[in-house]
Amino acid sequence: MELKIEKNKITFDLDNEIPFFQVGDKYRVRFGIDDFNREEMKCLIREVFPNKMSCSLLTEILTPTYSKEKTNIGKYIGITNWKEDKYFSDVEYIIATIREVEPKELLNYSLYIKRGLVSPFICFHDKKSVYYISDSVIDIVSSSTDFIELVKGEYQGRVNHYYDKT
């Protein structure tokens, strides 16, 4: 699935690297998930997504062996407007996109992931930014280098510089 983030095209599927590795340093920032408490994560999410966003996630692997991803996303996000797309590569799988996700829903699901109860292949996105979360990191990719610099400055003690190319 292709996400258009203004000038950047991000491919979110099992055949490509995660969004963080598809753009240069000036368009991305990475944090350790354990570096944020609830209030700090809430502020970060509000900066990235002041309004509703979409969520894309792996829901099922169809072949070679069927398996359904255990995301429990329905407990945290109201699913009323979604679309499923089937992809083929070494495996056949489905990525669903949920629209109109509220920032509060993203916060609650992020905290659920932080507790280590699930490790979904998931990202949240709008026309300007992508928020990728796993059980260890939060990655933000943006079309605005000014926004990334602002976030890096505001959270400078928490930025993970391991993959910076400077």
TrEMBL record:
The lineage of its organism: Bacteria, Bacillati, Bacillota, Bacilli, Bacillales. It comes from Brochothrix thermosphacta. This is Phage tail protein. It comes from the Bacteria.
